[in-house]
Amino acid sequence: MRKTLVFTTVTIAALVAARWQARAPISFAAAEQIRLRAHFDSVERELRARDVPGLTPAQRAARTRLLDILHRYQVRGVFPQNIDFPDRDVPVFIDWRGTRCGFAYLIEQTGHEDLVQRIAATRNNALAAELKGEAEVGRWLTENGITLAEATRIQPTYGCNDRPGGDCAAAPFPSTIASDGYKTASRLAIASNAATFTLSVLDDHLPRRTKGIAGVASGVLGLAVGAPYAGNAGGRGMFARWDAGVGAVSLVLGIVRLATPGEPAAQSRVSVGPWFGARGSSGLAGRVTF
Q1: Is 67 within 8 Å of 100 (Cβ atoms)?
Q2: Quick one: 146 and 228 in the same domain?
Q3: Please, are residues 209 and 257 in contact by the beta-carbon 8 Å criterion?
Q4: How many whole angstroms separate alpha carbon 101 and alpha carbon 88?
Q5: Are residues 110 and 199 in the same domain?
Q6: Among 87-91, 93-97, 118-122, which stretch is predicted with the lowest mean pLDDT?
Q7: Rounded to whole angstroms, how far apart are CA atoms 1 and 199?
Q8: Is residue 35 included in any domain, yes or no?
Q9: Buried b vs exposed e over 82-107: b needs ≥16 C-beta within 10 Å?
Q10: Nearest Cα to 143, choosing from 176, 177, 115, 180?
Q11: How many whole angstroms separate alpha carbon 171 and alpha carbon 271?
Q12: Sorting pLDDT into bands at 50, 70 and 90, what band is 259?
């Protein structure tokens, strides 16, 4: 019976751990690159499929070359960063590293680097539609067989990395925030594990099997609450790592208690629990008594 119970407990714990295994959070830069590549791929397909009967053969050829350049830009995947506007997404003609946006890159690659530098120096965060009055921009559009509306479609805006440690961390990224509900669940999980540790160490009247079952149950609870977010930053990640760590220890101790026979009188006692230092440090503390 005991072996069956232990096997069932281990199997359930393994399934829970596998189901709730934390995914590594995607970085802001990676998410932006995915978004922008999808944007440029969509724009390229859209413009290639568009019927443009009013263009001359020279304009058609220039338009095709332009879309080929846009394709290479999308595949290369090096895009500007917005580090100046944490409260909104904006166009960035040339960023602080010198990286060109898609619109700027097209203009530059068709031999108009001077125009790119002038726009960057005077209207670096302007939308393409706002350049309507620029005569040189108008000539470039006509030469290459695209409209101002199409240029506006090509030009994306760029978000600011507001995650902790990001370039403009004005507000925490949602995946780092521990909601009130998550804080409550986390505290319940830690309290459950702490109560199990206390009962295991202080109450000698409880049967070993009862202590083991309580340890396994509280351990599984801690892993279920903590494992999905253990890789996150910020408050949510901190709570999650505590839950998962304490839960794992409780689960192991519970399984050990279920798998071994009754306690002999001289058996050593082991206790593990949260530890908080005087200067804000924290960790797990263990004690062995004989």
Answers
A1: no
A2: no
A3: yes
A4: 17
A5: no
A6: 87-91
A7: 24
A8: no
A9: bbebbeeebbbbbbeeeebbbbbbbb
A10: 115
A11: 40
A12: confident
Domain end among 107, 124, 154: 154
- The residue to which tokens 């924290």 are assigned: 282
Say whether both 252 and 150 belong to one domain.
Answer: no
**Same-domain check for residues 71 and 135:** yes
What domain count does the chain have?
2
One-letter identity of residue 213? I
**Residue range 6-33, pLDDT digits in tens:** 444 444 444 444 444 445 567 788 888 9
Can you tell me which residue has the tokens 């058609």?
A: 60
**Does some domain include residue 167?**
no
pTM of the model: 0.52
**Would 45 be classed as within a structural domain?**
no
Q: Strand pairing partners for 100?
A: 94
Q: Where are the alpha helices (DSSP H) in the chain?
A: 2-19, 28-49, 57-76, 102-109, 113-123, 135-143, 148-154, 180-202, 208-226, 234-259
Assess if residue 150 is contained within a domain.
yes
Give the DSSP per-residue string, 141-163: HHHTT--HHHHHHH---B-B--S
Structural domain span for residue 258: 2-22+176-289
CA distances from 130 to 112, 149, 180 (A): 19, 11, 44
